Amino acid sequence: MKRILIVGSGDVAARALPWLTRRFRVLALVRRAEHAAALRKAGAVPLIADLDDRRSLMRLAGLADAVLHFAPPPAHGETDPRTRALLAALGAGGSLPQRLVYISTTGVYGDCAGAWVDECRATRPLSARAGRRVDAERQVRAFGRRNGVRTSVLRAPGIYAAERLPLERLRRADPVLREDDDVHTNHIHADDLARLACAALFRGRGGRVWNACDDTRLKMGDYFDAVADAFALPRPPRLGRGDIAAQLSPMTLSFMGESRRLHNQRMKRELRTPLRYPTVADGLRDACARMPAR
Q1: Contact 220/185 with Cβ under 8 angstroms?
Q2: How, if at all, do strands 218-219 and 184-185 pair?
Q3: Which residue of 174, 202, 254, 268 lies most exposed, with the fewest beta carbons within 10 A?
Q4: Partners of 184 in beta bridges
Q5: What's the CATH superfamily of 3-110+117-161+188-214+262-276?
Q6: How many CA atoms lie within 13 A of 34 on its CB side?
Q7: Distance in angstroms (rounded) separating the CA atoms of residues 47 and 89
């Protein structure tokens, strides 16, 4: 491979760029011209295009040997027209990419009542947001089968990093569920997710799915307690499920309605990429070390 196309040039993509740009010519899709300078500085070639505007995607055909698809679906609807537009552009003429990696979400499993979940479990999304991800996954895998492109999917849970911690929520004293009502959650550091996506380009088998999560075993309230303790903030108040609904947004409540514990053995065995932050505790120690002295 010589040319990599990144679609969705956000935080995870930025973390992948240092490794990629030392080895390949990296092209990065960006919606607004004002973001192009940062990509150039990072060593990528910015392409101004919009997944919501099919005409702007016409030049993508035959452009890259591999694609990292990090872009989320739209905020509304039952399907993901952005992924459909991207795949149509990639297949519109010229040579097809050899490989495509898509970052999805473990929300596609829906509520599993705290059960252990591996990649063979059927997807049963509860929210429209997760349903759009299921649609994107199906499109990506069908594109691979139809065109002989090696496609694969990383299902990511709660992504965190030093810059992606719920500190403001803790300062607001937003409540979390009491122990009896709490749900199991799963986590991955943004740096590790970027590294896994790069590894999947080379080590991933066609049509394969991986749970891209670390080894942490925490309930949601315990996660917020750990962040609060690490940054010397008050732990959030605990409420029962019936009392908490009036104080939180529908989206936040939706995350409190799903409980599962993810197996990550397939990821470790096949992608062979040791995690820099095997647990949230490791990531929080690093985040604290990066903070200015208080």
Answers
A1: yes
A2: antiparallel
A3: 202
A4: 219
A5: NAD(P)-binding Rossmann-like Domain (3.40.50.720)
A6: 0
A7: 14
Contact (Cβ atoms closer than 8 angstroms) between residue 146 and residue 96: no
Assessment of whether the complete model's pTM goes beyond 0.90: yes
The pLDDT profile of the chain, 294 residues, written as one tens digit per residue, is 799 999 999 999 999 999 999 999 999 999 999 999 999 999 999 999 999 999 999 999 999 999 999 999 999 999 999 999 999 999 998 799 999 999 999 999 999 999 999 999 999 999 999 999 999 999 999 999 999 999 999 999 999 999 999 999 999 999 999 999 999 999 999 999 999 999 999 999 999 999 999 999 999 999 999 999 999 999 999 999 999 998 999 989 999 999 999 999 999 999 999 999 999 999 999 999 987 755
Give the contacts of 251 (CB within 8 A, at least 6 positions apart).
none
